[in-house]
Amino acid sequence: QVRLVESGGGSVQPGGSLRLSCASSRYTYYSRCLGWFRQAPGKEREGVAGIYLAEDTTYYADSVKGRFTISQSQDSAENRVYLQMNSLKPEDTATYYCAALPELASYTDYTRATSTRGYWGQGTQVTVSS
Fold first, then answer.
1. What is the predicted pLDDT for the residue at 77?
2. CB of 102 closer than 8 Å to CB of 29
């Protein structure tokens, strides 16, 4: 079993920044990648960003490219990733869920992500409002 512990989130004005953190309790085949999905009220859950820990390759949704950066801890034993979110917009408001998945491509689509074995965090709220 893999446990994910999320931290970060909160409220910020448009144009501001926030950083999310997600730590995985174990590195397994099914947690080779770490990243985030988000879900706004009344909308489907969507992939935001992911990173394949062994090769440091990344995925970003088009809506966040150039504004969000996903990275992993310098200490690989931590199995921790960060999502630095800059130039935040009101449309970024959502609950952000950390997900551990075996394939980076799974972060492109929630249906695809849930069709494979993986692990999910409890979610953390991000609110962007003036």
1. 80
2. yes
Per-residue burial over 76-95, b if 16 or more Cβ lie within 10 Å, else e, is eeebbbbbebeebeeebbbb
CA distance 67 to 52: 19
Per-residue pLDDT tens over the stretch 42-54: 999 999 999 999 9
- A 10 A CB-CB count for 13 gives 10
First to last CA, the chain: 40
Q: Specify which residues 110 forms β-bridges with.
A: none
| DSSP assignments along 68-90, one per residue | EEEEE-SSGGG-EEEEEE-S--G
Cα dist from 80 to 23, 44, 98, 110, whole Å: 4, 26, 11, 22
